[in-house]
Amino acid sequence: MSAFMVRLLANIAHARKTWQEPCIVFCPHWSLRLGPVVHLLLRWSADQNSLLVMEEGLDANLALLPFKPMAMKVLQCSFVSGIQVQKSHHLLKILQPRHILFPEILRQHIGPLETLFSSNYYSENKTVHIPYMKEDSELDIAVELACQLQYTTLKQQDMNISRLKGELMIEHGRYRLHLGNDEQVSSQPRPLVHFGRIDLNNLLTALQKLGMNTTLEEVTGAAGSHKASRIHVSEPSKAMIEVMEAQTVISAADENIASVISQVISGVLDCI
């Protein structure tokens, strides 16, 4: 095997390993006939969530003829190529973009903007990972499934939450939730799943309302960092509640008092 073929196969293997979608690809020629753009258009032309941006004045019908019929959106606009770097600073401050891609050759001229905006530099034949800037993601759920979900309102957030077992899939750049073939939303009661952070003040208040005498002890680690909080119960019988970052432990000789404390903790936590 020739050295060229070895290098070509190595490049293909590397591309498969690093390739991620969604992505932005810059094509060097408007004809869309040169380089990998041909294969990418064959891949994306049927995807209605894809967008091709072309310079205004070019014959888009001619350029896209080999890829028709296509569902890809096409936008033609004017590319202003004469803007100076100094003017771009003012323009970007007005637009306030979340993330900017700069050509690598402009790195030495962009210094001040790096402190104002999230940015990356791109160069030819190199993949650049762009951070995901959206705070929330949209999720498609079948109407039949959404109607079966039983929602619980979280105590500490204005949010409804439900619980199910299924598959999270990505199709054409959108998240979709599907139940497995052997899964169905059941109305049968299931063991509760508790989550969130215990508010010690609320817990102490709830215990005292039940007639328990309590004292709070803060436990620190060797370096003085906070390790845990311990609530000591002296009456009606002795017990201890140790609240740590990832778990809460109830220690009591009386099973009844342990059960009551467990119910109180469940009452101050969110659960589904």
UniProtKB/TrEMBL annotation:
GO terms for biological process: snRNA 3'-end processing. This is Uncharacterized protein. InterPro entries: Integrator_9su, RibonucZ/Hydroxyglut_hydro. It comes from Sesamum angolense. The lineage of its organism: Eukaryota, Viridiplantae, Streptophyta, Embryophyta, Tracheophyta. It is found in: Nucleus. Its main location: nucleus. The keyword Nucleotide-binding does not apply. The keyword Nucleotide-binding does not apply. One of its GO terms (cellular component) is integrator complex. It comes from the Eukaryota. Keywords: Nucleus.
